[in-house]
Design a protein that fits this description.
Strand content: 15-25%
Number of domains: 3
Shape: elongated
Oligomer: single chain
Number of strands: 8
CATH class of the largest domain: Mainly Alpha
Largest sheet: 5 strands, antiparallel
Strand order of the largest sheet: 4-3-2-1-5
Radius of gyration: 34 Å
CATH architecture of the largest domain: Orthogonal Bundle
Number of helices: 7
Structural class: alpha+beta
Length: about 290
């Protein structure tokens, strides 16, 4: 429907101003569309962040991570939807018919879908992983042969940062197995090698004493979740026997506890006289009998 003001100008033969007024009204329409899109996007993101904060207040750490991850994805989806609607509205305002474009896009989408199956798989796999809560922002995971901390989760890829600080972008279609190291607890597993002549009862007591000292240390009181578990003699080596044990720890403290335990255990071995073995090479020379002289 034409603007009634422009119709009024035409009625009184003021056509000279019609083109300028058409242009001005188009600019105003575009400005209003862009402002409304920006306003909706800003309000929607604020609402999502507000809901995220309220839901995270009384939630556990695991639930808070999941809420943050879903919040990021929802903001991303909202941005895409608002941008798409804004583009269609702008085209309609400029007089470009949208229906043929949508029909063409539908046909092109089918053609592109066959040629970009990996991209479709990215989005489908990412959606499934979010719904099943397999990966959250802040988790330490192993995916596609890479280990690191999850910095960003999208429907297209997952961004990891490894121990050296290197960033890996892993497309979701490359993920077949997710190994998550940030769920509830972990075990610091240690294989302790000692000499064959070691008294195992003495060794086990020494291991428990070191664990007890660490659990009484304020630095580790909230990190170590349970007493030491000693599996027992696990292997016979060339010059040592191997005793396997493990400590239940917080998900972010596995290596910290393991390194501290092994450092304290070395000092305890020195105090208790428990030998840390090393390879021995024994050379035997055959005894040569000298013939007797008669």
């Amino acid at each position: 429907m034409k603007n009634p003001f422009i119709h009024f100008l035409k009625k009184f033969e003021l056509e000279a101003y019609v083109e300028w007024l058409d242009f001005i009204f188009i600019v105003l329409d575009l400005t209003i569309v862009l402002f409304v899109a920006w306003f909706i996007l800003r309000i929607t993101k604020k609402i999502i962040l507000s809901i995220e904060m309220k839901m995270s207040e009384n939630s556990s750490l695991d639930d808070a991570k999941r809420i943050q991850t879903l919040s990021r994805v929802m903001r991303y989806i909202t941005s895409v939807v608002v941008f798409s609607l804004s583009v269609m509205t702008v085209l309609s305002t400029l007089g470009i018919p949208v229906a043929p474009l949508l029909a063409t896009a539908g046909v092109a989408g089918v053609a592109i879908g066959f040629g970009a199956q990996s991209l479709v798989k990215d989005y489908f796999t990412g959606f499934v992983m979010l719904i099943e809560n397999q990966i959250r922002q802040g988790d330490v995971v192993e995916i596609a042969g890479k280990i690191g901390t999850v910095e960003e989760v999208t429907l297209r890829y997952i961004r990891l940062r490894d121990y050296e600080g290197v960033v890996h972008f892993v497309p979701n279609n490359a993920i077949t197995v997710v190994t998550n190291r940030s769920r509830n607890f972990l075990y610091a597993v240690m294989d302790i090698s000692v000499a064959y002549n070691t008294d195992l009862a003495h060794l086990n007591q020494t291991l428990r004493n070191v664990t007890k000292e660490m659990r009484e240390d304020p630095k580790f009181v909230n990190i170590i979740l349970d007493d030491l578990e000693i599996a027992g003699l696990d292997n016979f080596g060339e010059s040592s026997i191997v005793v396997r044990c493990r400590i239940k720890v917080d998900t972010s403290s596995q290596m910290l506890v393991k390194r501290e335990f092994q450092g304290r255990l070395k000092m305890a071995f020195e105090q208790e006289g428990i030998e840390i073995p090393f390879r021995h090479l024994v050379i035997q020379q055959p005894t040569i009998k000298t013939p007797s002289i008669t």
